[in-house]
Write a structure and sequence with these properties.
The chain is mainly α. Helix content is 60%, strand content 5%. The chain folds into two domains: 4-88, no CATH class; 118-190, no CATH class. The model is unreliable at 85-89 and 93-109 (pLDDT under 50).
Length: 191
C-alpha cells in the first residue's frame, strides 16, 4: 500500500466489519493498533486486493487478543466466550452496510510503530540479564535444585514440565515446585 493513511483506512474498514467489533467500539483504536502491529510488513509490500482475506483473519486475531487483554472474552473448550457468556465467533463477519455514528470522522487514530525502539531493546536486555544473574546466584546457593538447568529447559528451550521431569529425572510435581520457588526468588529481587 502506498501511504500510511491508506493502510489505516483499510485496517479501520476490516475492524469495523468484524462481528466482534460491535459492542466493543470503545476499543476501536486498540483493535486498529494490534491489527497494524500484526500486518505492517505485509501491508507495505503487497497489493490490498491480493491480501484482503488474509488481513481479515489477522484483524480477527488482533481483535480477539485485545478483547482477551481487556477481560472481555476468555477461551473455554476451544471457543471464545465473552464475559457475559455469549459465544464469540472466531470467523470474521461478512461486509455489511452499517452506519457507525459513534466514530467521529474528524478523529485521527495514530497507529504506533510496532518495531522496538533502541531504548526498549536496551531495557529488555538489562532486565533479562538481571533475571539470569538472579538464577545464577540461586543455582550457586542451592546447586541440588538445579535452578539454572530448570530455567534453561523451561524458558529457553520452552519444554513442558513433564518433559523437564524426564530430562532431569525428577517428578513433574517437583519440577512445578522448583519453578514456583525460582519464580518467588526472582520476584523478591524485583520488589
Amino acid at each position: 500500500m502506498n501511504t500510511l493513511q491508506e493502510q489505516r483506512d483499510f485496517i479501520e474498514q476490516l475492524v469495523k466489519t468484524n462481528n466482534k467489533f460491535f459492542g466493543n467500539e470503545d476499543l476501536f483504536e486498540d483493535f486498529c493498533s494490534e491489527t497494524y502491529k500484526r500486518s505492517h510488513t505485509l501491508l507495505e509490500s503487497m497489493n490490498v486486493n491480493a491480501i484482503e482475506a488474509y488481513l481479515a483473519k489477522v484483524a480477527n486475531t488482533a481483535i480477539l487478543t485485545v478483547l482477551k487483554e481487556n477481560g472481555r472474552v476468555r477461551r473455554r473448550e476451544n471457543k471464545y466466550i465473552s464475559t457475559k457468556e455469549v459465544l464469540v465467533s472466531p470467523i470474521p463477519a461478512k461486509e455489511t452496510e452499517q452506519t457507525n455514528d459513534f466514530v467521529d470522522a474528524s478523529c485521527v487514530y495514530d497507529i504506533e510503530d510496532p518495531r522496538d525502539s533502541f531504548e526498549e531493546k536496551i531495557v529488555r536486555k538489562d532486565l533479562l540479564q538481571k533475571i539470569v544473574d538472579i538464577v545464577l546466584v540461586s543455582q550457586k546457593n542451592d546447586p541440588s535444585k538445579e535452578f539454572l538447568k530448570l530455567f534453561y529447559l523451561r524458558y529457553v528451550k520452552e519444554l513442558k514440565q513433564k518433559d523437564i521431569a524426564k530430562e532431569i529425572n525428577i517428578s513433574q510435581s517437583e519440577v512445578s515446585k522448583r519453578l514456583v520457588e525460582l519464580a518467588q526468588i526472582v520476584k523478591t529481587h524485583f520488589v
